[in-house]
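Allow me, if you will, to draw on your knowledge of protein folds for a short while. Thank you for your consideration; the sequence and its tokens are set out here:
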Amino acid sequence: MCYAELHGNNQGIAKLYDPTQMAPLPGTSPLKIVHETPISASIDGGKKPGMVALTKATDMVIEKAKRSGFAICGTHNTPSSTGMLAYYARKVAECDLIALVFAVSPEFVAPYGGKQAVFGTNPLTWGIPSASSEGPLVFDMATAGMTLFGAITAKATNSPLPEGVGIDKEGNPTTDPHAAFPGNGGAFLPIAGHKGSGLALIVELLGGVLPGAAIPGQEKTKAVQKSWGNTIIAIDPALLYPDVQGYKEKVAAVCAHVKGSGSVKLPGEIEAAIAKRNTAAGTIEVGEPLWAKIRELAASPPAKL
């Protein structure tokens, strides 16, 4: 969460505004590897926060891919968000591995043409090793026009949503974060119409069905089952390009050429600039409602599990 906050990403400490979104559930159990091969692992999160399970999966996928050239790990049975996926993808890419990360969540997003939530915000992320002084290229995107914690932040600050990212419980367009909030019967909308909706479906299949998480359309909703899913893949570039340093230098060259074609911002460049600015200042700005909630949480006794 601090990494996200440092980079100006809405997957940061805004999550603490509603602490129930991140808290472990009563009766949590240790992480359990339910299936494993030399290049894969399936992890039962034991109802622990999603960040705990995906961190374990990230460490395992790096170790396995370094040994075998390719690895895939999945997580399920976690009740909360894994946060900013760029954090995990960058961790993989900094080990000279290509990363792909998929994450699903409860029903927050209506498909293109739909009037009720079916998909999660379903982000997908790529991490590409690079010889650039800025480090790996990381492209992190949600397939929804609004993330859950972006809406939570809007609610906390009483700010309207952008046009075209939410509908109310009647299926009507709205900029009211309370009306569009899935818990109130509303839904977010996918990016880019049918294209974003198609991407969301693919993430649902790879990030939810594949690792064994809850899926839409069952008797109990994904929100009730509280089994969010994640899949992370690591690929050694040497499988196709034996000179990994040469590969990284070409990645950097391509990115430099793209950037030099005009007023172009590469994926992650804006966030990196924010992180540098915040690091130099030694401070991070936090809205008053969120700061009040953090102070309230700090003064309260820890939950008993």
